[in-house]
């Protein structure tokens, strides 16, 4: 029977421009590690907010697949001396495979006889294997700039504050440099009241939402776009949606709420670009234009919280 794996890495606020590449990297690293460890799964998704990187593996197997692999060693000529005794080459091969001399056999390949060993390994419970894989995922993530803090042995974009690895309804416990695993995540830094307990993977997104965190970046993107469009329509205009700015704002907020603001109409006498550029690059505002694409004296910003 398969289960879902949730792995949340809780951090101090990570720079927004790091997040898209980081989430892709986490997905690729996780997929490679699971396959290398013979762990079957149905799919992988990654999610991110300023304070968390989330890996969700759907339909992960409970048991590793058994390993059966044919390993090629030295040639027969190099493996034995003239008296048929094992050579150093063969002994080294046996040691590396943790095998005995009676475990190997001779097989021809392209006209040359080689020593082979049939390696077999019984699959282990996945929850035990994950205790090794999950710390490795954490320490394999790289960033344009990273830091060390405290006595931690690895670098990260910002200090890691909590880890929530849950397989179905089981906590996967390991200790990475004193960062212990638990069922407790954190909601919005200001609006949430206390820690949030995750009893199973299926309740994760709803419980975070109740703590004023929308973990799915695509949902946050859709919310921001919709709210901005609605506010602009109320003024009889349209939001000038810049996709790069939208991407940045998605990873600046955990619970987006769009707000309308305005400025003195006399500034509209300036060249359009002179008003729009500082709005986007310095204030992270979306300009508003009328139906003829003429700049209006309004802007839309997005706060990390509710409208209250």
Quick overview of this protein structure:
The chain has 308 residues and is α+β, with helices and mostly antiparallel strands.
Write the layout of secondary structure elements.
Elements: E1 3-11, H1 19-36, E2 43-49, E3 52-60, E4 67-75, H2 76-79, H3 88-97, E5 104-109, E6 112-121, H4 126-140, E7 160-167, E8 170-171, E9 175-176, E10 179-180, E11 184-186, E12 195-197, H5 204-210, H6 217-234, E13 238-239, H7 243-250, E14 256-262, H8 272-283, E15 286-289, E16 295-304
Helix pairs in contact: 1-4, 6-7
Question: Can you walk through the features of this model?
Answer:
The chain has 308 residues and is α+β, with helices and mostly antiparallel strands. The chain has helices at 19-36, 76-79, 88-97, 126-140, 204-210, 217-234, 243-250, 272-283; strands spanning 3-11, 43-49, 52-60, 67-75, 104-109, 112-121, 160-167, 170-171, 175-176, 179-180, 184-186, 195-197, 238-239, 256-262, 286-289, 295-304. It has a five-stranded antiparallel sheet, with helices on one face. Strands 13-15-16-14 form a four-stranded antiparallel sheet, sandwiched between helices. It has a three-stranded antiparallel sheet with strand order 4-6-5. Strand 5 and strand 6 (112-121) form a beta hairpin. Helix 1 runs antiparallel to helix 4 (126-140) and helix 6 (217-234) packs across helix 7 (243-250). The two termini are 45 Å apart. The mean pLDDT is 94.
- Helical residue percent? 25-40%
Number of helices: 8
Globally, the shape reads: elongated
Oligomeric state of this protein = single chain
Strand composition percent: 25-35%
Mean pLDDT across residues: 94
Runs in which pLDDT lies below 50 for 5 or more consecutive residues are none
Q: Give the radius of gyration.
A: 28 Å
Spatial ordering of strands, largest sheet = 2-3-1-7-8
Largest sheet entry: 5 strands, antiparallel
- Strand-and-helix sequence, N→C? EHEEEHHEEHEEEEEEHHEHEHEE
What structural class should be given to the helix and strand makeup? alpha+beta
Strands, total number: 16
- State the separation between the terminal residues, measured CA to CA: 45 Å
